[in-house]
Design brief:
The protein has 4 helices and 11 strands. By secondary structure, it is of the alpha+beta class. The chain is globular and about 45 Å long. The strands form 3 sheets. The protein has a 7-stranded mixed sheet, with helices on one face. The protein has a two-stranded antiparallel ribbon with strand order 4-9. Strands 10-11 form a two-stranded antiparallel ribbon. The relative contact order is 0.15.
């Protein structure tokens, strides 16, 4: 059994380190919000796999159908985050985490795995160079430089939604979702 990594479950969630940004030893509302968000997402098939210690070494992914992203595709996993920071880099952890995700996707009969990238690396995005070496390829782009990377097992490819590609909405009504996946509180506002 692999004890080097663990998957977050509703049972072990309260005692596990689940944050890539907040490093406070004190209770923090952002971490509490992330934990509550995870409780709900785990029921949808969300996976949070991490090094079995307090470190920023983890992968988070979910079925694309339930992921909070403007991407269309059938039977894909979407990788939210893949991070290996600090003195944990260079030890093969990123590769092991990605291999786990790939094996999980194949075992569940998924069509592939996708993730967000950009023509110019942005600090909050996982390293595209790394996943391209594993076989991910750019399958769609937006006018402002975002890229959708995918590793397809069956030849199908996900795409950005039409509004994401145009960077515009079709009407004068705008709904903004500000959510807690990365430690913020949820709010929904609609403007006319």
């Amino acid at each position: 059994m692999d004890t080097e990594f663990i998957n977050i479950t509703t049972e072990n969630l309260p005692g596990e380190h689940v944050c890539c940004i907040i490093r406070s030893k004190k209770a923090h509302p952002g971490i509490d919000a992330k934990r509550q968000w995870l409780v709900d997402r785990l029921k949808e098939g969300h996976v949070f796999r991490k090094l079995n210690e307090k470190a920023t070494v983890f992968i988070e992914y979910a079925p694309l159908e339930t992921a909070w992203v403007p991407i269309i595709g059938n039977n894909y996993y979407y990788i939210y985050c893949l991070w290996v920071l600090g003195n944990h880099q260079g030890k093969g952890y990123g590769k092991k985490l990605l291999e786990y995700c790939i094996a999980d996707a194949k075992a569940k009969g998924k069509s592939g795995i996708c993730m967000l990238g950009a023509k110019k690396q942005k600090s909050w995005l996982s390293d595209q160079t790394f996943v391209k070496k594993i076989g991910f390829e750019v399958v769609d782009t937006t006018a402002d430089g975002y890229e959708l990377l995918a590793l397809s097992f069956d030849g199908t490819k996900p795409t950005f939604t039409a509004n994401a590609k145009k960077q515009a909405i079709p009407n004068k009504k705008l709904t903004i979702y500000h959510t807690i996946p990365c430690n913020a509180l949820t709010s929904i506002k609609t403007y006319k």
